[in-house]
């Protein structure tokens, strides 16, 4: 056996022995490890626990005092992208309305379909109703963006009309035809968000 071949066989064996004997004694049974304190989004569950067995938290954004406000609803199963958008478009429940929540989406641009494109949700919108002029379009688009961008697997949201990217208002009043995140509407988020 040549020196090179002997080294090629011996070196991995020595490395395995060194790693196996790294000074940490083996344990005979598994042990519980307490999770760290604080918020760790990377380790957070994509489907938060609502405390109710079998229930899942779904977040939608409505408007309270001209600010975007997250509402967590308990659902039996996590909705698909289109169903999640439909829950938003349906507006706040009677109880949510009584709590001061409303929707800027009522009477605005017609929302068509939504489809995933990797980590992007692409929302197709129609023409606005005749004679409609709204000053709260940034809130309306912010509701959609923040609702969809907080979904597991969706990082950004974009809008199209007639197959072309649509320029939509951001919180600062600028128009963007690029992919948006909830951060683009940070100036409109309620203080506790």
User: Biggest sheet, in brief?
Assistant: 4 strands, mixed
Mean pLDDT metric: 80
Distance between the termini: 69 Å
Radius of gyration computed on alpha carbons: 25 Å
Range of helix content:
10-25%
Structure summary, number of beta strands: 8
The stretches of 5 or more residues where confidence is low (pLDDT under 50) are: 38-51
Report the principal-axis shape. Answer: elongated
Question: Could you write a compact summary of the structure shown?
Answer:
The chain is an alpha+beta fold.
Give descriptors for this structure:
193 residues; alpha+beta; 4 helices; 8 strands; 23% helix; GerMN; GerMN domain-containing protein; signal
Describe the structure.
The protein has helices spanning 3-20, 81-89, 94-98, 137-149, and strands spanning 56-64, 67-75, 111-117, 120-125, 156-161, 164-165, 168-169, 175-176. By secondary structure, it is an alpha+beta fold. It has a domain at 56-188. The strands form three sheets. Strands 3-4-5-6 form a four-stranded mixed sheet. A two-stranded antiparallel sheet has the order 1-2. Strand 4, helix 4 and strand 5 form a beta-alpha-beta unit. The longest helix has 18 residues, at 3-20. The protein is elongated, with a radius of gyration of 25 Å. It starts with a helix and ends in a 17-residue tail after the last strand. Mean pLDDT is 80; it is low at 38-51.
